[in-house]
Amino acid sequence: MCIDGADGTSQTYHDPSTRGPGSHTIRTIAWNPTGLLIATGSADRTLRIWNPEKPQVKNSTELRGHTGAIERVAWNPTKEAELASVSSDGTCRFWDVRSKTCIANVPLGGDGLTVGWASDGSLVLAGRKDDTLIPIYLSPNSPPTAGPPLPQSLQTNQTLFNPVGPPTTLLLTTGDGSVRICSWPPPPPNAATADGGSSNHGMRTASPSRSSTPAPSTFTSSLQSLHTLHAHTSACVSLAMSPTSRYLAIGGSDALISLFDTHDWICRRTLSSLSGSVKSVSFSWDGSYVIGGSDEGTGIDIAHAETGETVARIETTFPAPCVSWHPNGRYWIAYSGDPGGLKIVGAAGGGM
């Protein structure tokens, strides 16, 4: 890997349409599956799609509709131009980026906090700030449909489905420092139990029939736990699976990143270069390198996933809470935190 951007050289993507001093804090960033587009969501409800090769705002697209802060964005893994966003306005919106239109708007029943897609694009799981998860089922011939809410007893900051195939396994961060591995789909409300008896402890499980998908309901359901990873001494905040599915990175509020081997769920190494709560974690496209983002301290350390050794450092003037590697063959790193806007090391002549 050539770290030409380790000297801090980066390209800035400045959005002039801020809605007040200090209001344009970027809360979330996400690359689309091809790496040809990157989305940013901000506290001032600005949702924008950037072309990393063309940093001028005139080459970007603003998606309008949310009335509150954009808390999280995520792309459909199977469609390069379909985006989901959740907001403190209590909705999850689905966007066709090409036509710049909102194609669906799903009420969440509370302030949105997280969102993530199943790898086959059949399901979105949105999370509310009251630690309730809302599954949203998608099919080609009908609008998105919300299933029964899944209230959690502990703080839940992020969720992650199994990385390949239909959703069969769900990982959840918790406020007690652990990550729960649960089976999916949840049982129907009248069959839900506090803990599961499933014998499926792996990440790759048989695909459930879509006929078992819960119907929309006002009843709540609960998840069946398969395994618990005791990862940190305080809350787990962020999750990322390596593209090779070899390692799971877990960021904690204790300023540590733990790397778990997914074959035996043993923590192989811990990265300790950050100064504060790890708000985001990300692997390079080949799974070789891992980075973490925090809203305390400055700089982004690049660590080798197999050894934990820091191999390079990108200097930043401000803390960078949102960090994300390019997903497809390029050693580019996007990060937030700079008042000037999104920054990408490597893109548009920015090095790396």
Can you tag this structure with a few keywords?
mainly beta; 4-stranded antiparallel β-sheet; 352 residues
Description:
The chain is mainly beta and 352 residues long. The protein contains no helices and 29 strands. It has strands at residues 11-13, 26-31, 38-42, 47-50, 61-63, 70-75, 82-87, 91-96, 101-107, 112-117, 123-128, 132-139, 142-146, 150-151, 159-161, 169-173, 178-183, 225-230, 236-241, 247-252, 257-261, 266-271, 278-283, 289-294, 300-304, 310-314, 323-325, 333-335, 342-345. The strands form 7 sheets. Strands 10, 11, 12, 13 and 14 form a 5-stranded antiparallel sheet that branches. A 4-stranded antiparallel sheet has the order 1-29-28-27, with no helix packed on it. A hairpin with a 5-residue loop joins strand 24 and strand 25. It is globular. 48% of the residues are buried. Mean pLDDT is 88; it is low at 191-217.
Topology, element by element:
Layout: E1 11-13, E2 26-31, E3 38-42, E4 47-50, E5 61-63, E6 70-75, E7 82-87, E8 91-96, E9 101-107, E10 112-117, E11 123-128, E12 132-139, E13 142-146, E14 150-151, E15 159-161, E16 169-173, E17 178-183, E18 225-230, E19 236-241, E20 247-252, E21 257-261, E22 266-271, E23 278-283, E24 289-294, E25 300-304, E26 310-314, E27 323-325, E28 333-335, E29 342-345
Antiparallel strand pairs: 1-29, 2-3, 3-4, 4-5, 6-7, 7-8, 8-9, 10-11, 11-12, 12-13, 12-14, 15-16, 16-17, 17-18, 19-20, 20-21, 21-22, 23-24, 24-25, 25-26, 27-28, 28-29
